[in-house]
Amino acid sequence: MQTRKKKTIPIYIVLMLLLVCMTVGCSKQEDASGQNVPSGNDSSNTLVIGAYSVAKDAVGELLPEFQAVWKAKTGQTVHFQESYEASGTQARAIVGGFEADVALLAMESDIDKLVKADLVSSNWKQAPNDGMITRSIVVLGTRVGNPLGIRDFEDLTKPGVKVLYPNPKTSGGAQWDINAIYGAGLKLSEAQGKKDPAVAKAFLEKVHENVESLDKSGRSSMAAFEYGVGDVIVTYENELLARIAKGVNYDIVVPKNTILIENPAVVVDKYADKHGNRELAEAFVAYLRTPEAQRIFAKHGFRSVDPEVFAETKSSFPTPEGLFDINYLGGWDKVRSTLYSKRGVWYQVLAGL
């Protein structure tokens, strides 16, 4: 029986096929949004953005606008890789090696984590508006018609009222929520003659007794509320305004005493320099402060840091009588030690101490 010889493919044909496959495979990539990212003749850059979850919709609208601005200025096409997580989770991811060129986080203390990891310059607050790009306030969202007659934080302590806010271990939004409740408790004690942390702690404990669940992020908490969990959600004003603008029926209750939220954005120096994206990253963060970008933020329910844009839109944003900022609580360093350290008020509340 005659054995049939196997035919072999000449080595030069194998090499040609490999070359063709490599050329086709490298001719285009996809960025995080699924867009084709050209290579070769088109001069392009990819900007990596790590943001907190609540900012996702606004940032999604801002990116193509900045893309056009950058193209007109430089002739380059910029593409984006985006990640959206709870602010604390996002900060830890960047510290842990997620190489974001730009970080948009919920609060100053999350940027401080990047500073301590030598990823961001310690002088980041020398930027306009102390490095902040948006503002908001903590409000209460109720079912349409406000069936339980919620008027203020005190109503969240009533028996049977089911409350939602996220977990402050992972969510910057949750820390703003808890800061607002704790600060409202301080305001109540102050009205009685003395600013008393013990009264504020007791007030926070009463509210927390009615909390249904602690979700990972502000966006997750909002999703649970939309699914039907809870009677009242403690959240950013912009979250509710954005959902109402999309046709979801909620009532917004603005507490008499609540906190001013300020959200920062920074260039992550170490990674932007590593990627050769310093100029691009700085231009993007600067763009976020322009009137055009601030109007987009306002469209998504944020209070503008630009005085002129805020003047244009302030009719949509009531000013609570007892509005306070983080300095009323002693600043972020004191808040971290007083509320969120291992022996802080929040952990005592969780442990029932």
TrEMBL record:
InterPro entries: Thiosulph/SO4-bd. Gene3D superfamilies: Periplasmic binding protein-like II. Keywords: Periplasm, Signal, Transport. GO terms for molecular function: molecular carrier activity. Pfam families: SBP_bac_11. It is found in: Periplasm. GO terms for biological process: sulfate transmembrane transport. One of its GO terms (cellular component) is periplasmic space. Belongs to the prokaryotic sulfate-binding protein family. This is Sulfate ABC transporter substrate-binding protein. It comes from Paenibacillus xylanivorans.
